[in-house]
Amino acid sequence: MKRFIPFFLALIFALAAPCPVLPAQAEEGAQYAVAAERDVWFYKDANEESGLFILPYTYYVSVVSEGEPFCAVEYLDDTPPYRKITGYCKRDRLTFVDFTPARPYLRRQITVTYTLPDFPSNPAGSGSFGTVEKTFLFYGTYFSGTARYHYVYADGKFDYVPAAEEITYDLNTDYLSPSSGSALPPQEQTAPLSAGQIAALCILAVAVVAAAAFILRGRRKSPPLPEEERSEF
Fold this sequence. Notes:
The protein is of the alpha+beta class. It has helices at about 5-15, 195-220, 225-230; strands spanning about 20, 30-35, 40-45, 50-55, 60-65, 70-75, 85-90, 95, 110-115, 130-145, 145-155, 155-160, 190.
């Protein structure tokens, strides 16, 4: 019985050891990648001659399929009044993440003011309708030489409008967190003992005590020799 005591003790320590908790896996669903640079282009086709616009900085595309050097991607969605647009981005310009961002797409409206030309024969008036304002949904920015345009959507059509000013918006920072799937592995955590483990520990402890008591009882001293036998020595 004595030789089983080390086994019982080892089993107790094994059950008492904290159990590591594995890092949570990313939920299944869309794969996202962020424009972590200010010049990530969204292309109509898988070539650099078909650039439509530069993605808003720190916002995301949904990756439809990964490829090299281009990935098929989607930007925005079909939530009215917006419309999803499908195209391509260069893989090495994207930063992939393993989570679903809370704010993947920039939802921004811009208003463009058009001034009507003056006509020499225009009748006298106050000029109340000499300017027209139009609201568009902003998707990104396009450069042609030094000229800048906005790629926009309105009335069921995508097109460009002159950029009178730079668009400002809040930046995303969630992709900068270590939990966003970067090279830093999450630290292991330990979980407390379960009720089953505690019960098993109690049973084993009682068994070890009982075994020890049994062994100690077996180690009784030999009965003293009779008087006459001791006198012979």
